[in-house]
Amino acid sequence: MEKLTEKDKELIRGSWESLGKNKVPHGVVMFSRLFELEPALLNLFHYNTNCSPTQDCLSSPEFLDHVTKVMLVIDAAVSHLDDLHTLEDFLLNLGKKHQAVGVNTQSFTVVGESLLYMLQCSLGHGYTGPLRQAWLNMYTIVVAAMSRGWAKNGEHKTD
Ligand code: HEM
């Protein structure tokens, strides 16, 4: 697993301090962006209500539940910047689950772009080049572990 620099950690912790207090609204901005970039992903959620247009899906309990889960994973990563490897098994398993529900690893990259978009919207002038890179470095580590789990599950299925 790659390591983050002390500067990366400082930038991530500093910016998450305020964002982390309001996880769901920030997660909604992030996932609204994701579905703009890749609308087909909306179909992977099983809505109890027949929601359409997209805006209705974005306020449905199923969707908000997932947004909360994603933000809690990010929160866990930020809390474990010094020992991200302790999340490895959890992230492998999470990758496997996403393979099983039909999410592609390429879509994880689009989530990364959406995360950066949300940071830019929320932080304004605080969204600097080094801050962007620090978050990208952390997200890359998280997604690399998820993708390893995804690939393991994929192999298992085609055996
Ligand atoms: C690429 C876009 C993604 C899509 C379309 C997607 C979709 C899903 C779906 C359909 C489920 C199962 C239903 C549910 O629990 O809500 C799920 C579960 C979950 N997702 Fe995602 N997901 C995506 C990305 C992510 C990312 C990037 C993270 C975290 C960094 C994440 C975290 C979770 C968690 C924690 C669960 C619950 C797993 C469990 O039941 O143990 N998802 N996701």
Summarize the structure.
The protein has 159 residues and is mostly helical. It is built from 7 helices and no strands.
Mean pLDDT: 91
Termini, distance in Å?
Answer: 27 Å
- Residue windows where pLDDT falls under 50 for at least 5 positions: none
DSSP E strands, number: 0
CATH fold group: Globin-like
Describe it for me?
It is a single chain. The protein has 159 residues and is mainly α. It has a single domain, classed as Globin-like, CATH 1.10.490. 72% of the residues lie in helices and 0% in strands. The chain has seven helices and no strands. It has helices at 6-19, 23-37, 54-58, 61-79, 88-100, 105-123, 129-158. Helix 2 (23-37) packs across helix 6 (105-123), helix 5 (88-100) crosses helix 7 and helix 6 (105-123) runs antiparallel to helix 7 (129-158). It starts with 5 loop residues before the first helix and ends with a helix. The model has no long low-confidence stretch (mean pLDDT 91). Protoporphyrin IX containing FE (HEM) binds next to helix 4, helix 5 and helix 6.
Please write out the topology.
Blueprint: H1 6-19, H2 23-37, H3 54-58, H4 61-79, H5 88-100, H6 105-123, H7 129-158
Helix pairs in contact: 1-7, 2-4, 2-6, 5-7, 6-7
